[in-house]
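Database export, one record per block. Field names are fixed; values are copied verbatim from the stored entry.
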Amino acid sequence: MENKLILAANQSQQIIEYDDDEHLSVGAMNTEIVINENASLELYILQNVNDEASIAKDFKIKQLANSRLKIVVVSFNGGDVRNSYTVDLDGEGAETEIYGLYLVDKKQHTENHLKVNHNVPHCTSNEKFKGILDDEATAVFNGHVYVAPGAQKTDAQQNNSNILLTSTAKINTQPFLEIYADDVKCSHGTSTGQLDQEAMFYMRQRGISKANARMLLMYAFAAEVSNHIGNDMLREHIDDMIKRRLRGELSSCETCVLRCSHPKEYNFDIDYSKI
């Protein structure tokens, strides 16, 4: 499938794209987006399909002067999920934010590939991707920030963090900077580890069960991405889906969780006498 979106100057748009087909086997989509001067786009991508499904999405985005772009992509389920984003900052004052969260288990695989091209001066980009991997799940993160000659005053930040819940889960992460200007502020980083055992011990000492302590730590980790969702109602639904996913209760279904009118409440068993 081919899509093309052009935002006129000064236009503001919010788009939600949701993959939730229980019977989907293969899905591919190429999207081209142009964001003109002073325009703003918020794009929220949610992926929750069956364990046998393969999804491939490719976004090519061009930003002109003083435009704003925010992408938040959350991958809940899918056998083989591959997302690719190429952003060209072609106008001074353009700003890009891309946030990603992937929650994978069993033998699921997810990939996120980013290329952000700072082609002109005075542009800003920020990419943050976080993953929680369980069982034998695997993930790939490739992040590439390019700063062209003459693209001075560039501010580019990139980070990928992962939690591996088992010794058989694997992550391949490669953040990368390619800089040809000398007056820039750029950073990149990656971290991979397990749940903080000191934090677990601290919470257990205050009457929080082991299961709820794990849940709280994982949710806090994931919420650093979901908190960037600007639509309040959507953010509440996504938070509910994240909690369900972390508890192992969320799978792809014909009745979309986003449309659930009675979200489940989550209570944490705490012995307040120990606090």
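Remark 1: Residues 37 and 63 are 8 Å apart (CA to CA).
Remark 2: The two ends are 55 Å apart (CA to CA).
End of record.
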